[in-house]
């Protein structure tokens, strides 16, 4: 869809980047909401002004957050924080847009991982479509590549899907430092959150794998179906031992044989899966074309926003 | 397009695989031609029978090759050998199909590298569309990924685009053997042709880069615009020297700053571009999402055929 009018829900790193970049992709943001406020302009918001206000006053505008849904938009962009279980309030935002026959593009993983079947049901009853490239692998076009190859011809998907965990493990291996030390370094660099559990416990990677499983199998998976182990208990000595054998340890997520597994795994030091730093990689096993591996930035404001805006471009005219 | 009727011109490794796999992708081959014969069946050919005949008698059928164009087809699949300059007879096959308002999917690089502007002109005047994913990187969805990201947001593309040259260089590096020795080994394995010049001189990689340049810039490039150096003069000592510095040598093709260059280049031994064996990799520099790298099988019957059949699936209904 060209020249789409976007209603953006969420004004964190990704939401801010969507505001900044929408114009370059030929789209217009007509409304934006954060958790406590909204700004609406049917002719298109002044992104710079909104972002300055957010920066200075902590709010995007003077309207109620709900006002976003009354704006004349084509696509609801759901980029508010991922929540688990009932995936609220994100799920209700998506429901509202689809019931109004509008399109939805998500970077919010909650509705797609935890309520996929409900989401597809709402979509089927709507004139609008749902897209969520940004939920898996950030800038890596994992889902559209799988879609393009036809999920039926994809036999397995595995990958390094969390940049924080990968940064920690590759630094531990490269510098011979222990987990606590590298985690603290990552937090200083802004690569890990003050509460890093979502990343280091493997939950973030697991949500992405659950989404992949839903896409490959047409639904039926939630986070509860994933077998998840994180990286908090890996001693530096394990990495040294692995290294003597030409291997290293990475947090790998895999969807194959109907199962979803995330956990630390030994991989060849110079192999495909041994990406460094915060990079992500998605490896797609295909029926006739062998393995395809796509690597790139799995997170970041502009990186994730570019995936969101690419999805807007893929939507059909309403 | 679903359930497409395919007219396949060319019955080498790729053509044979298209015949074998078309059914799995939901399509039907109604005609196939090699250089001296054709077989036609509006209800769909018996692929096994045709392939047996080709194997036993060297021909696909009893009809004249031209008969392929009279079959009731939706998509012409041009998988005959790549030719340079006027790109004939492939170009005329494509012209005929487009003038009959049919779609065209190519694995044949000639028309796309050498006569891109003519091709797009014929396409503009036709109800049919032209697709050519299989011409660059075999199974790697390079062109559809670029298309999806929007060529306007892609600042450069580089890659390892020839499996033969890459195999030779990675074997020279891994085993410390010289060029002649490894080339002979590659020929024994069927990885290099009896006349390997197309691959080792860099022509094949250059054609693929010219195609990428045409896609990124909307035309204007032919093989003559590429600056091409092959791998025939690289001594084993160059690889040893590189290795002491943590690097190796690969035949890299690049499209950037309006230029097209193919030549041997020093790359980090464990870096993204140091793929091994016959694997290919395409690295796409994007404006906001950083670099994306996609690796996979760049050649092979089933691999290339899967790219052809994926293209058929992307075509609009006629």
From TrEMBL, chains A, B:
<dbReference type="GO" id="GO:0004412">
    <property type="term" value="F:homoserine dehydrogenase activity"/>
</dbReference>
<dbReference type="InterPro" id="IPR006096">
    <property type="entry name" value="Glu/Leu/Phe/Val/Trp_DH_C"/>
</dbReference>
<dbReference type="InterPro" id="IPR022697">
    <property type="entry name" value="HDH_short"/>
</dbReference>
<feature type="active site" description="Proton donor">
    <location>
        <position position="208"/>
    </location>
</feature>
<dbReference type="InterPro" id="IPR001342">
    <property type="entry name" value="HDH_cat"/>
</dbReference>
<feature type="binding site">
    <location>
        <begin position="10"/>
        <end position="15"/>
    </location>
    <ligand>
        <name>NADP(+)</name>
    </ligand>
</feature>
<dbReference type="InterPro" id="IPR019811">
    <property type="entry name" value="HDH_CS"/>
</dbReference>
<keyword id="KW-0560">Oxidoreductase</keyword>
<feature type="binding site">
    <location>
        <position position="193"/>
    </location>
    <ligand>
        <name>L-homoserine</name>
    </ligand>
</feature>
<protein>
    <recommendedName>
        <fullName>homoserine dehydrogenase</fullName>
        <ecNumber>1.1.1.3</ecNumber>
    </recommendedName>
</protein>
<feature type="domain" description="Homoserine dehydrogenase catalytic">
    <location>
        <begin position="143"/>
        <end position="312"/>
    </location>
</feature>
<keyword id="KW-0521">NADP</keyword>
<feature type="binding site">
    <location>
        <position position="109"/>
    </location>
    <ligand>
        <name>NADPH</name>
    </ligand>
</feature>
<dbReference type="InterPro" id="IPR036291">
    <property type="entry name" value="NAD(P)-bd_dom_sf"/>
</dbReference>
<dbReference type="Pfam" id="PF00742">
    <property type="entry name" value="Homoserine_dh"/>
</dbReference>
<dbReference type="GO" id="GO:0009088">
    <property type="term" value="P:threonine biosynthetic process"/>
</dbReference>
<feature type="domain" description="Glutamate/phenylalanine/leucine/valine/L-tryptophan dehydrogenase C-terminal">
    <location>
        <begin position="2"/>
        <end position="64"/>
    </location>
</feature>
<comment type="similarity">
    <text>Belongs to the homoserine dehydrogenase family.</text>
</comment>
<dbReference type="Pfam" id="PF00208">
    <property type="entry name" value="ELFV_dehydrog"/>
</dbReference>
């Amino acid at each position: 869809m060209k020249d789409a009018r976007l209603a953006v829900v969420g004004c964190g790193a990704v939401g801010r980047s969507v505001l900044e970049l929408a114009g370059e992709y030929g789209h217009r943001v007509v409304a934006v909401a954060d958790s406590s406020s909204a700004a609406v302009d049917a002719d298109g918001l002044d992104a710079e002004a909104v972002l300055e206000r957010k920066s200075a006053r902590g709010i995007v505008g003077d309207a109620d957050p709900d006002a976003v849904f009354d704006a004349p938009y084509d696509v609801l962009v759901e980029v508010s924080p991922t929540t688990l279980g009932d995936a609220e309030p994100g799920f209700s935002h998506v429901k509202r847009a689809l019931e109004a026959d509008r399109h939805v593009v998500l970077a919010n993983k909650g509705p797609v991982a935890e309520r996929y079947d409900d989401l597809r049901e709402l979509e089927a009853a709507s004139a609008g479509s749902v897209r969520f490239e940004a939920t898996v692998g950030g800038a890596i076009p994992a889902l559209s590549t799988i879609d393009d190859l036809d999920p039926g011809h994809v036999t397995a998907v595995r990958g390094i899907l969390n940049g924080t965990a990968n940064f920690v493990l590759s630094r531990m291996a490269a510098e011979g430092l222990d987990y606590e030390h590298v985690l603290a370094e990552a937090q200083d660099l802004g690569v890990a959150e003050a509460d890093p559990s979502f990343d280091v416990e493997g939950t973030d990677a697991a949500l992405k794998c659950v989404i992949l499983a839903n896409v490959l199998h047409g639904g039926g998976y939630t986070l509860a179906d994933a077998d998840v182990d994180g990286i908090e208990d890996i001693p530096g000595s394990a990495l040294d031992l692995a290294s003597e054998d030409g291997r290293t340890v990475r947090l790998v997520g895999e969807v194959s044989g109907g199962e979803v597994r995330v956990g630390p795994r030994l991989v060849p030091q110079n192999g495909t899966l041994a990406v460094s730093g915060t990079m992500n990689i998605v490896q797609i096993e295909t029926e006739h074309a062998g393995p395809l591996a796509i690597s790139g930035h799995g997170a970041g404001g502009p990186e994730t926003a570019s995936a969101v805006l690419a999805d807007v471009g893929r939507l059909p005219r309403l």
